[in-house]
Known about the structure:
Layout: E1 2-5, H1 6-19, H2 23-34, H3 38-43, E2 51-54, H4 58-71, H5 75-79, E3 81-84, E4 87-90, H6 104-112, E5 121-125, H7 131-139, E6 144-149, H8 152-165, E7 171-175, E8 189-194, H9 201-204, H10 209-212, H11 228-240, E9 241-250, H12 256-265, E10 268-275, E11 281-288
Parallel strand pairs: 5-6, 5-8, 6-7, 8-9
Antiparallel strand pairs: 1-2, 3-4, 9-11, 10-11
Amino acid sequence: MFVVSAEKFSLWKKKQISKGGDNNSLNLLIDSLAGLSKKELNLLKIKSEKNLNLNLNLDLLETFWDKHIDTFIPIEYLSGISFWRNLKLEVSNRVLIPRPETELIIEIISGIFKNREEKITFVDLGTGSGAISIALALANPNWNGIATDIDKNAIEIASRNFANNSNHTNLKFYNGNWWDPLANFKGEIDLAVANPPYIPQDTYELLPIEVKNFEPKKALLGGKEGLDHINEIVQDAPKYLKKEGWLFIENHFDQGDRVKQLFLKNKFTSVKVLKDFSGIGRFTIGRYK
Length: 289
């Protein structure tokens, strides 16, 4: 533990911002590595006389900030930590950094499955860091969850994240591509959710440096039109879903109508494209027959 006065810390923080970058990123770095939350930082404005206890000394913290400024590497990968909903998740460049807009899918699912005592089986396809599957498992202890990912490293990270965020046992992890590991669960899934790679090739080439240079390409690129993986997931879903089982897909902002038609073509009903916090048609949902 390193003790520093609030005055010294405030001067240090101003110096870092003067180099470049933004205040939110610096606050995230301080929270992740130094253990000083945004709430505690805000208190400094009214309690400037206090001393602060940091998990990292300021010189070392500065080297991490300098690396972020110089290389554009995301703070989450520098620290190995991503905060998502009420979860603190381990991340590496083998998994996508969970996005705030994806948090809404948990609320949408909760709005449909309102009976917390109901026992259902859900699957999170392409779980990555495990964010979606862990959030669902923790919010619904009576549910049995399954998470799949083609990358064995991602499965290991997601498994650790579940263990580090709970003592529950209602979530299992399987290595394999989309539905492939679920041969024993055909016709037994009540709910399937996926945030697959959906970025079209042309769009991928234009992504910001901090995304394209550091986040895993296979977690972002969805083929020429961005629909390769979505097509596969939707077409195979009927083999695994129960009658009236639900499928939730996160898609690119301009893919909603095409994904909706894909759902309808594969005999889904109650198909809707739902908007995210920015008013963009981000989620396509449907019920199988």
